[in-house]
Amino acid sequence: xxxxxxxxxxxxxxxxxxxxxxxxxxxxxxxxxxxxxxxxxxxxxxxxxxxxxxxxxxxxxxxxxxxxxxxxxxxxxxxxxxxxxxxxxxxxxxxxxxxxxxxxxxxxxxxxxxxxxxxxxxxxxxxxxxxxxxxxxxxxxxxxxxxxxxxxxxxxxxxxxxxxxxxxxxxxxxxxxxxxxxxxxxxxxxxxxxxxxxxxxxxxxxxxxxxxxxxxxxxxxxxxxxxxxxxxxxxxxxxxxxxxxxxxxxxxxxxxxxxxxxxxxxxxxxxxxxxxxxxxxxxxxxxxxxxx
Length: 292
Prior knowledge:
Blueprint: E1 3-10, E2 13-20, E3 32-40, E4 43-47, E5 50-54, E6 58-62, E7 68-70, E8 80-87, H1 89-95, E9 112-114, H2 117-132, H3 138-153, H4 162-167, H5 176-187, H6 195-201, H7 206-217, H8 221-239, H9 244-250, H10 256-267, H11 271-277, E10 278-280
Parallel strand pairs: 1-10
Antiparallel strand pairs: 1-2, 2-8, 3-6, 3-8, 4-5, 4-7, 6-9
């Protein structure tokens, strides 16, 4: 059974050290997502339908709202230790203006990148500090995280050139009817997805609505709705003391077991495990010095 070793959550997003032995369903995040093998067997992700190997010398890169799935290609019984970074684009933009477009759908030009020996050493030090040091400060964690992200993305060119990134097939402006549909979805994340109802509310046929939604968000309405529900679950689990059963009910699940299966299918662990393992971090005091 997959499990979490450590989870850190703060304004930077989430950092999770996951011990995986099973695949995850196809899903997405509003974060930009970096996945690094920290130990165990080689494995792989599927990103945009393309296989992205997760090995000692590779990292998997997933853009914001990019559909991906963990495949767990390891032999039966073998486990893979994964350092999973879910990074808030706004946090990166605060630290370094060159990373202001980390939420751009093409910020990572390829789903897989080679890691240098120096970056691998940084990963090992990062993992060891997270694993053993329960007293790591918010400032220390953010510095470690920022430096690791830079070391990973430094291996490809273009991320510093905002103009080039903006010119490289910029995303289509979202149709106002799709924005309206997303606003309706956000109003009640617990409501069962009703594509016909959303299409009717926005004055579109079901087929046209589905086509526009995928064009503008790059995921299906169901995947988008699941992202909203999952992130709402994370917020309730970390910022309230409500029993997991109550959280399950508030999010529209008919039984806590259904909620647990949904959560595990997206992260590999149960809601209760997440709550036990997560460490919440407040922002460090004082200005940061990385902004250029």
